[in-house]
């Protein structure tokens, strides 16, 4: 039983740490997403062109916009990987918690002589 309890504690700690990592990754991804329109507008405002459509087309082709969107995709990927890792640790924690509960119930049932 002690081994199961040790594993439960281990996965509890791992889930906690993975949860913090996921929260940070989510925050970074959300910030980039919220600032996307402002960033694009800023890039557009610095482009030369007679019409807004022309300046927007030029903005889409800039290295600055390409870098920003690549950073957004990276942040979203990291967020997704962090969430999967967190979910895995929570699932393992729940599995060990269930095993411990089952062992305790089994012990109680066998001690009643039924």
How would you describe what is shown here?
With about 110 residues, this protein is mainly alpha-helical. The protein has one domain. The protein has 3 helices and no strands. The model has no long low-confidence stretch (mean pLDDT about 95).
How do you describe this structure in short?
The chain is an all-alpha fold and 114 residues long.
Task: List the defining traits of the structure above.
mainly alpha; 114 residues; 89% helix
How large is the radius of gyration?
Answer: 25 Å
Whole-number tally of structural domains? 1
Order of helices and strands: HHH
Which descriptor suits the 3D outline?
A: rod-shaped
Number of helices: 3
Provide the low-confidence segments as ranges. none
Give the rounded overall mean pLDDT: 94
- The helix-and-strand class reads mainly alpha
Which percent range fits the helix content? over 70%
Number of β-strand runs: 0
Give the SSE map.
Blueprint: H1 2-45, H2 52-60, H3 63-111
Helix pairs in contact: 1-2, 1-3
């Amino acid at each position: 039983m002690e081994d199961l309890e040790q594993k439960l504690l281990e996965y509890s700690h791992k889930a906690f740490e993975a949860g913090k990592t996921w929260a940070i990754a989510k925050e970074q991804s959300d910030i980039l997403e919220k600032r996307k329109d402002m960033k694009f507008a800023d890039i557009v405002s610095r482009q030369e062109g007679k019409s807004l459509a022309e300046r927007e087309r030029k903005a889409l082709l800039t290295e600055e916009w390409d870098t920003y969107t690549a950073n957004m995709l990276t942040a979203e990927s990291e967020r997704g990987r962090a969430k999967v890792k967190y979910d895995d640790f929570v699932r393992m924690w729940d599995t060990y918690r269930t095993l411990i509960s089952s062992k305790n119930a089994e012990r109680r049932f066998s001690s009643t002589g039924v």
